[in-house]
Structures
1.
Amino acid sequence: MDPLAVVVTGLWAMLPAYVPNNAAVLAGGGAPIDGGRSLDGRRLLGDGKTWRGTVGGILAGALLSSGLNAIRPTLEPILDITLPAFPLGPTLALPVGAMVGDIIASFGKRRLDKERGAAVPVIDQLDFVMGALALVFVVDPGWTAGVFSLPVLGVVVLMTPILHLSTNWAAYVVGLKNEPW
Ligand code: CTP
Ligand code: MG
């Protein structure tokens, strides 16, 4: 696969895992998942993980997969790149895994005494990628192994932090997010 195809494939395949985070910022608010409960004096997850944000994020990611499936036949000849289609399993596993990875990271951050919104570099940028890749691998190992070759995985791990930091910074600048990370 040529380098451009590797980059495009990595971004394409991860889009349904990227968008849930940004959609959660827009959809968030209302009841926190942990119901305000604490463990050893620290919140279980915190007010930054809400039902609305999680469900909104998952819906946005799944809808995006369907949209990508729809535009794929038009885009492939234009780019001259073979793009992966999203079967039902990955359509759900990518956004659910992304949200669950982010929630697990929040649980860990609270145990380490990091308040909601505290920056934890690397973890903040890759928690949702790890969650998405792990779940999609469990749900559809054949699809995952076929799409995420080593070069594609490398692109995802390198480019995700850059994309994540720049979209979060943009969300902060327009007043949607409280912190720029
Ligand atoms: N959000 C949400 N539900 C989620 C994930 C995110 O409602 N499952 C919303 C919250 O409003 C959250 C914002 O999106 O504040 C930004 O998400 P994130 O950076 O993941 O949360 P933080 O506020 O930084 O909280 P934490 O320290 O727990 O990561
Ligand atoms: Mg955060």
2.
Amino acid sequence: MKVVSVVGARPQFIKLKPLDAALVQGGHEHTVVHTGQHYDAAMSQAFFEGLSLPDPAVNLEVGSRSHSQQVAQIMERLQPFISGLRPDWMLVYGDTNSTLAAALVGAQGQTKVAHVEAGLRSRNRAMPEELNRTLVDHASDLLLAPSELAMRNLEAEGLSGRSHLVGDVMVDLLADVLQHQERRQTLANLTASDYIVATIHRASNTDDPLTLDRLLRALGRLQIRVILVAHPRLRRAADLANLTLERGNVVSVPPLPYLDMVNLMRGSQGVVTDSGGLQKEAFLLSVPCTTLRAETEWPETLANRQNVLDPRGDRLAELACREASPLNDNPYGDGKASLRIVKLLETRTSDGGVTR
Ligand code: UD1
């Protein structure tokens, strides 16, 4: 079976790892296309090297542009590559502009599309990611859902005929990392005493200077050390608005490789974030998470107050390093999602494909 994965942003490089391992184990031909949406070495190359990912066959080098330009340029550059390769399946991951552009190329008759992490909904149509993930689900042939709730979301939109509950591929990778990696001393000098980890990168939090200033102030008022892992978008927005990232106990560091980020979270008293992936990783690591958004596409994490929404950051002092009360059961699967996905692709290839 010939499979192409289209990736372009940091969370997709992470999800690619377990799928690549399962495809290689199954003896399949797996080609990786990098759209170039994320291009800084710390956001891209560090993940390919740190996770030993296969080198992309091509980099479409789309870079930073408006949403429309990003989607249009990826489509224009991807289409001839896919026509030449003629894969049995195209795998698209998550909810980024790269995901949407690739799904549209596939849906326009180029190849069958399977959406990894299908069925998530935040119910906030103003988020570009919400629009992307909804459109991608409707354009894809096979919907690979990480949880029961995601399955119910797909059913509510009339998509259950193409949907399968497989579990979450990020659980596969995290389980593997926790099993095989020794505890590394990430940022040893900064982590010698208690700390929390913070990230901010959503456009809704970074692009309005007043909102960003309010969140940075809230972090700066915390009594505990805050390690702020700064996405390039955050750094750029702060520079443009003339805002300082480092206030009070806040120390900012550049984006970290995956294994270092996992270790940093594991050793922390809490995570404060607006990232989807981090909310879930904190949940899986039993670290309390405070989410700087009004809604989440991972509502399962809210159980037992493992994750609490604090959109304006005004409850951070009380929430940031509260005690966690971890759940016994994991709604995101057993760490075998990627093997299930490969089995489904194999079955659907040999029985002639899918019906829309
Ligand atoms: C994208 C995804 C988001 C995902 C996130 C992970 C969309 C709509 N959003 O947002 O779902 O959670 O990636 O990081 O696709 N930049 C750099 N260097 C880089 C990458 C980005 O400087 O390597 C800067 C860009 O110049 C731009 C900003 O960061 O100013 C945003 O880049 P963009 O490509 O829109 O992605 P993210 O905001 O990271």
